[in-house]
Amino acid sequence: MVSYKISERPVLTQVLSMLDKAFKNRPHSKGCILHSDQGWQYQHSSYQETLKNHAIIQSMSRKGNCLDNSVMENFFGL
């Protein structure tokens, strides 16, 4: 794992600060793929622009397909 942030609720600043921490831990991230679900924060222009600025390829689960990230969904369900 490169980076994570914990928050009591999903907010954009949580996700953006996680990205900043990840870039400090791995400054040479060009060409990496970052996978997420289709949450609003991952569709936000600030998030997408940050990935673009670091030459990271954004990957999202298909709508209604929980199998793409079922392991994490199960974890958060507990």
Write up what this structure looks like.
With 78 residues, this protein is mainly alpha-helical. It has one domain: Nucleotidyltransferase, domain 5, CATH 3.30.420. It contains four helices and two strands; from the N terminus they run αβααβα.
The name CATH uses for the topology is Nucleotidyltransferase, domain 5
| Arrangement of strands in the largest sheet | 1-2
Helix/strand order, N-terminal first: HEHHEH
Largest sheet: 2 strands, parallel
List the helices and strands and how they pair.
Elements (H helix, E strand, L loop, with lengths): L11 H14 L7 E4 L3 H4 L1 H9 L3 E4 L9 H8 L1
Parallel strand pairs: 1-2
Name its key features.
single chain; mainly alpha; Nucleotidyltransferase, domain 5; 4 helices
